[in-house]
Design a protein that fits this description.
The complex is a heterodimer of chains A (598) and B (387).
Chain A lengths: L1 H8 L12 H6 L4 H31 L6 H11 L7 H37 L7 H20 L30 H30 L12 H32 L10 E2 L2 E2 L7 H35 L6 H15 L14 H13 L1 H15 L8 H23 L2 H7 L3 H31 L5 H27 L19 H31 L66
Antiparallel strand pairs in A: 1-2
Chain B lengths: L1 H27 L12 H29 L12 H32 L15 H30 L7 E9 L2 E6 L33 E3 L2 E4 L3 E8 L4 E5 L4 E5 L5 E5 L5 H6 L1 H23 L12 E5 L11 E7 L1 H10 L3 H19 L2 H18 L1
Parallel strand pairs in B: 1-5, 4-10
Antiparallel strand pairs in B: 1-2, 2-3, 5-8, 6-7, 6-9, 9-10
Helix pairs in contact in B: 2-3, 3-4, 8-9
The chains are: A mainly alpha (598), B alpha+beta (387).
């Protein structure tokens, strides 16, 4: 390998002749484009599991007294005897659904796919700064996925103390079935996941800083790159804190320390723990947990910026304001974690501070939303599936974001904390929005990844059914939350008070099942198009950015010749000085042409 | 049966899908059939109209939701500070609905209005500082208002003045049950720690503490209307959250520390049951339960009891497998009824004494085992004392 690298490494023009085996090309590949595809396909697989779980527990919530054969088939005799779901496994499904969707799909697969694919291609680099580290990052992610999935098959069941794994529940096997081996596997998996994520993030940061092509100044970067870059920084700042929390929890669980535990009497005996505090864990967890929302969301917003500008045939409105708002969101995201803890027992004065910082974050968010809307204004909108998902993202981002103003206000949070109102809020603003961003990215860059096109009509069907179902699921959910229905209840039948919410639950589940089923359309479209999709042309969306100047067939080093030089910003759509409605970043400025944006 | 239903649903979905793609395909007829999978003018047209339709969907669904489910939402707060919370909530809602209504219209209407045509060029409009300033400053000002009101309310609710004439009550959480301890006449709770848990003293009250002598332990919470109740919360095992939605009150119970919340109930249970909205809600729930009972009886079960409203204390922090059924009834009494109720309750100190005496009596007849039990007890007590 090293000899070969020496032979060809210096001369990029010939590098694509370099002979690859199946293993170096498809498995232990160091090519960022292949790694992106690996992330995507692993992510899709995890997504199927995560979404599938939500279908099961939604069925349980809608029809708590029915038995379903499918429960028995999927969960087995121990967890669903005669098709009746057990309460422990309900909590496991909720926990693992959250973990998989937040970390494995919306963090790893979203960032992993699009940062890997687009950073080198859009900044004009041959590959990531360290291809080897990139490969290791993917394989650690793969390993952590395998461990997480394997925890589904152990006898005592997977972790089931919620994706936030608050101790003491997560620390004491006596407290709940999943806090034994299930929790151990969860923690090990997440520790490896964090290592993977950090390697990825460092690579992205270094690549963006060092490997930009000639002329690609920071203010000529596409907003996708800005989003990925800042996301990586947030990840590097906050993920280590979760790692430390996980390590301390492992210590408490296995080595008898008392970081998070104190004064516990369980199963008829007093445990030796003294002096720790679960609130400390909550601080550490949410120091990652809240920035995590933006780790999930910013890449989706970055993708949306790019897709909306390209398909509006119009410059993104307020390019610099968009960068400033990304930076502002990133900064504020690290000082708002306490709004998850208003009623945790921490000093109410802290609650005041966190209310203040939390509501501040609405300002840059509002700027982004308005800028997207203004970008559409007087555009020449090409309503491709990617564009629909991006518009859908702005819609759910606004709807979900607005209720954040209620939850971020400590006074109002008292009564809606941990109810379905919260579930509705975060699913819209980060779950659905980020998924839309991911879908937009897939529809938009599929030709770049696979050299073929996705079927647009299937894409349209996919979008419209998903859009209606997403609102159908989460809009009514606000009401049952405001009615005081706590989340993470396996059934509400013990509270006649909530009997009048049951019809709403059935409606929500119906929308969820239909919406979930229609994701099969996407899966079919995705996998069949890889092999049978229509061949893509080099620049199908007539886009300005550098990735569309590379050949359709993937080659090592991305560009066959020299790396192109960049002469302008990425959003010169419908520039009045040019005939065409797009101007590649590589097009030199005409003599006397002025820069039209600020 | 269910699997058959599932199969039918799946088949129907597949048919619906096939029909939908067919429709999209048919719309291509006549237009330049283009195989590039990039949106054509025709696509832009159809999708633009669908965007407009989607806007209608959001609006109709929202308005339908407000009518259909608006009545389910918590109403009339049963605590003094609740009015403040609900007021802020209502102000926030007016604001949010306004912003939502405007932005969704703009977004979807633009998507419809500016749907693309070949050969057309968009307006090159990259920046405008005035606009940017407007939509940074307006949210900032509005939010400043909300923050100030919110902080005012929060400070009022959360900072408990001990000088007030409060009733001190301990809420004690354990998997999966709530217990309440009243401070008694001295209004000071006796010291407690899980290490004192023994026999009937399940809350781990330090029985040697003078303040503990008049403490009362009960499993149904009674509180008087019109006085501030100062809750002190403890948990013996994992995190729990004491959630009293009708009082707009919630606080986590954390092992190893005491957390606090205080509120003043303003409706007795009897009064709250008589509120018109509650009468309606309860009769609606009972209709649903009656309907469900018919099915249950048909299957040979017993009919559901009719429901009467009671305030509840729910656990609202995942605490274990039976988290979904951790509740305690709360009764708000008139001050007179409350006094009467308190007078009827046995003191914990009394109960502990009796329980210690009882096994001794029982074992006395059984013979020699008495001594060993007594010895064990004294050892346990001395261990505690050392700590």
């Amino acid at each position: 390998m090293s000899a070969e690298a020496h032979d060809h490494g210096h001369d990029h023009e010939h590098e694509h002749h370099h002979k690859e085996t199946f293993i170096t090309k498809y498995i232990f590949s160091t090519d960022h484009k292949m790694i992106a595809k690996q992330y995507l396909i692993t992510g899709i697989f995890m997504g199927i599991i995560g979404v599938g779980m939500s279908m099961l527990f939604r069925m349980q919530l809608a029809w708590p007294e029915e038995s379903f054969k499918i429960f028995n088939i999927l969960l087995g005799d121990k967890w669903a005897p005669d098709g009746v779901m057990a309460n422990d496994i309900y909590l496991s499904l909720v926990t693992i659904h959250g973990t998989i969707m937040v970390f494995f799909v919306l963090t790893a697969a979203l960032s992993g796919t699009f940062s890997n694919l687009l950073i080198p291609l859009q900044i004009g680099a041959r590959d990531m700064a360290s291809g080897f580290m990139n490969m290791v990052s993917y394989w650690l992610f793969f390993l952590s996925s395998v461990i997480m999935i394997s925890s589904l098959f152990i006898e005592s069941g997977p972790a089931n103390s919620g994706w936030t794994i608050y101790p003491p529940l997560s620390a004491l096997p006596q407290a709940i079935s999943g806090s034994g081996l299930g929790m151990t596997l969860w923690l090990v998996s997440m520790a490896i996941f964090i290592a993977s994520s950090l390697m990825g993030s460092l690579n992205y940061i270094v690549t963006v800083i060092n490997l930009r092509t000639k002329g690609m100044s920071m203010t000529r970067l596409p907003l996708t790159i800005w989003a990925f870059f800042v996301t990586a920084i947030i990840g590097v700042v906050s993920f280590p804190v979760l790692l430390s929390a996980a390590l301390l929890l492992i210590f408490d669980r296995s080595f008898g320390t008392s970081f998070f535990l104190s004064d516990i009497y369980i199963a008829g005996e007093v445990l030796h723990y003294q002096g720790g505090s679960p609130v400390l864990f909550e601080h550490l967890f949410w120091f990652l947990g809240h920035p995590e929302v933006y780790i999930v969301l910013l890449p989706a917003l970055g993708i949306t910026s790019e897709v909306i500008a390209t398909n509006s045939r119009k410059p993104i409105f307020g390019y610099r304001a968009m960068i400033m708002s990304i930076l502002a969101i990133a900064f504020l995201s690290t000082i708002v974690w306490g709004h998850h803890m208003f009623i945790s027992g921490m000093n109410p004065f802290l609650g005041s501070v966190f209310t203040f910082t939390t509501l501040l974050i609405a300002i840059p968010s509002a700027v982004k939303a308005f800028n997207y809307i203004t970008t559409l204004w007087k555009g020449n909108l090409q309503l491709n599936p990617a564009m629909l998902f991006s518009i859908g993202l702005v819609s759910t981002f606004i709807t979900g974001g607005l209720t954040g103003i209620i939850l971020g206000d400590s006074t109002l949070d008292i009564n809606v904390h941990d109810t379905y109102f919260v579930v509705a809020h975060f699913h819209l603003v980060m779950g659905i929005s980020a998924l839309y961003g991911m879908f937009a990215g897939i529809y938009h860059w599929f030709p770049k990844m696979f050299g073929r096109m996705l079927n647009k009509n299937l894409g349209y069907v996919h979008f419209w059914v998903t859009a209606i179902c997403a609102y159908g699921v989460f809009f009514p959910m606000h009401f049952i939350g405001l009615a005081g229905l706590p989340r993470r209840y396996y059934t509400n039948t013990n509270f006649p008070l909530f009997d009048d919410l049951q019809n709403v639950n059935v409606l929500i589940t119906t929308f969820a099942l239909v919406g979930g089923a229609f994701q099969l359309v996407f899966l079919y479209n995705f996998f069949s198009s890889i092999f049978y999709g229509k061949k893509a042309v080099q620049n199908p969306w007539r886009s300005n950015t550098l990735e569309w100047t590379t050949p359709v067939e993937h080659i090592h080093g991305n560009w066959p010749g020299e790396i192109p030089e960049v002469h302008r910003w990425p959003y010169d759509y419908s520039n009045p000085n040019h005939e065409e409605d797009f101007v590649l970043q590589t097009t030199p400025m005409k003599p006397g042409e002025e820069v039209l944006h600020h | 049966m269910t699997s058959l239903l599932v199969i039918i649903v799946l088949v129907l979905l597949a048919v619906a899908l096939w029909q939908l793609t067919k429709i999209f395909d048919l719309t291509q007829v006549g237009s330049n059939r283009d195989s590039s999978e990039v949106a054509t003018d025709n696509d832009n047209n159809i999708q633009g109209y669908l965007m407009f339709g989607f806007l209608a969907f959001i609006y109709i669904f929202s308005i339908y939701g407000l009518f259909a489910w608006g009545g389910l939402v918590l109403h009339t707060p049963a605590s003094a500070h609740g009015a403040l919370v609900d007021n802020l909530m209502n102000i926030s809602w007016v604001l949010l609905f306004t912003v939502q209504a405007i932005t969704q219209v703009l977004l979807h209407y633009f998507a419809f209005k500016y749907r693309g045509k070949q050969g057309q060029k968009a307006l090159y409009f990259a920046d405008n500082n005035k606009l940017e300033a407007i939509w940074s400053i307006i949210p900032a000002v509005v939010l400043a208002g909300l923050i100030l009101y919110g902080l005012y309310a929060w400070t009022n609710i959360m900072f408990i003045d001990d000088e007030d004439d409060t009733v001190v009550v301990e809420l004690y959480a354990q998997q999966f049950k709530w217990t309440a301890r009243y401070a008694g006449e001295d209004n000071v709770l006796g010291k407690a720690n899980v290490r004192y848990i023994e026999g009937i003293n399940t809350l781990g009250v330090d029985m040697s503490d003078p303040y503990a002598q008049d403490d009362i332990v009960v499993s149904e919470l009674h509180i008087p209307k019109g006085r501030k109740i100062h809750f002190k919360m403890r948990s013996q095992d994992v995190l729990h959250s004491a959630y009293m939605p009708y009082f707009r009150a919630q606080m986590n119970c954390v092992p190893g520390m005491v957390t606090e919340f205080a509120f003043e109930p303003v409706y007795t249970t009897a009064e709250y049951r008589e509120l018109p909205y509650m009468v309606e809600k309860v009769s609606h729930i009972n209709e649903l339960r009656a309907k469900k009972s018919i099915d249950i009886v048909a299957k040979g079960g017993t009919a559901l009891d009719p429901y009467t409203f009671d305030y509840l204390l729910l656990c609202n922090k995942i605490c274990g497998a039976s988290h979904y059924n951790m509740q305690m009834k709360i009764v708000v009494d008139t001050p007179e009824d409350y006094k009467k109720w308190v007078a009827e309750q046995a003191l914990l100190a009394q109960q502990v004494k009796e329980s210690k005496a009882a096994p001794a009596d029982a074992t006395a007849t059984a013979g020699a085992t008495t001594d060993t039990v007594a010895v064990k007890d004294t050892i346990a007590v001395s261990v505690i004392a050392k700590k």
